[in-house]
């Protein structure tokens, strides 16, 4: 499709790629290519700056606490301003698990507090409690999501995330733990900035959400052509079944 391009920045692909989270990028890339939309994926690592005008979608995967710690310091130092400016021009910013935690204000663990970029009004704390692990299905609360849409995947986090009183979750837990195992909330969304605990990776099993993100990143134009999603829908049903969700 002439002149239409989705420009993706993949932050810290070496460090933040737990559970093959980079598979999310592969899905975004393929779904654009199948529609003849050009895609560029730019890996941006430690010490490299982020130019806010160069990207439509900025991605942060999940990671172990130690990798997160290293990336967090760099995120604040070399990328926070760029991220905030990109979000202000409505670029999509998607953080998965550890990446989600870093989009919030802070991640407190042991005797240390990791500062986040503060794009989401959330705080995460890890205490001496069991990790929240298992299959997870949520009912997203998103503008223009398909009717009765579900997101399904896998979660494994020690941190418990609390939303500020007027922050909006990405969705409500159907089965699984979500943000903290008790609020019934999962993830957080503020405009085009989204954080979620869903790994899997998320997008191969939830292709409708990949399209939602592509549309948001391209600001609604062009209207996305329907694809043959036979395999993707089978993957979605399987992820839903794994989380114990079989209804509508
Ligand atoms: N290290 C973080 C936690 O355990 C994030 C883990 C992850 O990205 N899966 O809470």
- CATH class, named Alpha Beta
- Overall average pLDDT: 95
User: Into how many domains do the coordinates divide?
Assistant: 1
Strand order of the largest sheet: 2-1-3-4-14-13
> Total number of helical segments?
5
Order of helices and strands: EHEEHEHEEEEEEEEEEHH
Q: What is the beta-strand fraction?
A: 25-35%
Element layout with pairings:
Blueprint: E1 5-11, H1 23-33, E2 38-44, E3 57-60, H2 65-88, E4 92-96, H3 98-103, E5 106-109, E6 112-115, E7 122-126, E8 132-140, E9 151-157, E10 160-163, E11 171-175, E12 185-186, E13 188-190, E14 193-196, H4 207-217, H5 230-242
Helix pairs in contact: 1-4
The protein binds glutamine.
How would you explain this protein's 3D organization?
The protein is an alpha/beta fold and about 250 residues long. It has a single domain (about 5-245), classed as Class I glutamine amidotransferase (GATase) domain (Rossmann fold, 3-Layer(aba) Sandwich), CATH 3.40.50. Helices cover about 25% and strands about 30% of the residues. The protein is built from 5 helices and 14 strands. The protein has helices at about 25-35, 65-90, 100-105, 205-215, 230-240, and strands at about 5-10, 40-45, 55-60, 90-95, 105-110, 110-115, 120-125, 130-140, 150-155, 160-165, 170-175, 185, 190, 195. The strands form 3 sheets. A 6-stranded mixed sheet has the order 2-1-3-4-14-13, with helices on both faces. Helix 2 (about 65-90) links the parallel strand 3 and strand 4. Helix 1 packs across helix 4. It is globular and about 50 Å long. The mean pLDDT is about 95. The structure holds glutamine.
